Amino acid sequence: MQEPIPNRKIIHVDMDAFYASVEQLDNPELRGKPLAVGGSEHRGVVSAASYEARKFGVRSALSGTLAKKYCPELIFVRPRFDRYKEISNKIRNIFHDYTDLVEPLSLDEAYLDVTVNKKGNPSASLIAQEIRKRIYDELGLTASAGISINKFVAKVASDYNKPNGQKTIGPDEVIPFLEQLPIRKFYGVGKVTTEKMYQLGIFTGLDLKNKSLEFLEKHFGKTGTFYYHVVRGIHNGQVKSNHIAKSVAAEHTFNENLTSEIFMLEKLERIAAELERRLKKHNISGKTVTLKIKYSDFSQQTRSKTLPYFISDKALMLETAKELLFQERMKESVRLLGISLNNLNTEVKKTVVVQLKFDF
Fold this sequence. Notes:
This protein has 360 residues and is an alpha+beta fold. The chain contains 13 helices and twelve strands. It has helices spanning 18-26, 51-54, 64-70, 81-96, 124-139, 151-158, 174-180, 191-199, 205-209, 213-220, 222-230, 261-281, 314-325, and strands spanning 10-15, 35-37, 48-49, 75-77, 102-106, 109-113, 143-148, 166-168, 247-258, 286-295, 300-311, 334-344.
């Protein structure tokens, strides 16, 4: 039985429609208009959508064609990851004015442990409010926050009063809050798992809590143990200021679908060169090369090979990727290729954070 650790004061800060909001910040003509970042109405998928676009059902991972169908007035802009990273670093600098226990999840969200903080402020709610105000005053962007005793509840709470809001779940409120929460709102419960929960008669946190550990493990395996504990307010994950990279990847979505392996080899060479640059920048190497292929029908396939030694050299990665490419015939034309390196040496190297995607 997992025993709870003492309550912490955890803040989860989540920027509101970050990529789209940055674009609207930099281009006043886009403000107040439905906006999608990524691809176009003919190619690619939506990386982020403004709140004006979300009203029409436009969401991240939606194809550009469908997004335009849902919202004919939708405006597409190309992503500018260098700009997003620049602003993200400024936001993290604000976080570090309050605590060094900052765990970024992505460019637009992070956990902060403010149990003991640099301001000596006993109120995590007031700290979250001050951080959000500073982000708006200094950068012109809004953020939402969740505040509670652990990372799980704080994450759920940050989505409660979006956009530009915050919610605090105190120690005595955690169990009642989780019991009334719709199961689809539980962090980590996606669409497929939600449907499975419904079939098992689990619609709320209380329904989940009423299931035994044996029942949840039977139907969800190890994840069932996680569900059993979090619905009881037990989540012992600590805020860690660094992540150990488990994989490093580079990929590219093409303007036109590729049908010839010859053209694919040319693209793979550029992808391998970018991957080599990232690996050497952080002194990382790995043993497992994975080729990612996304077809024109949006189906996806991965092919992997594990080598007996660590590599980070472009030529060796490309040689392995080529072997994987010709492993079997393509079933459709190809819209995306990617190479990733796993089984890394980061267990004995210093911790690093890497950006996993890039645009040509």
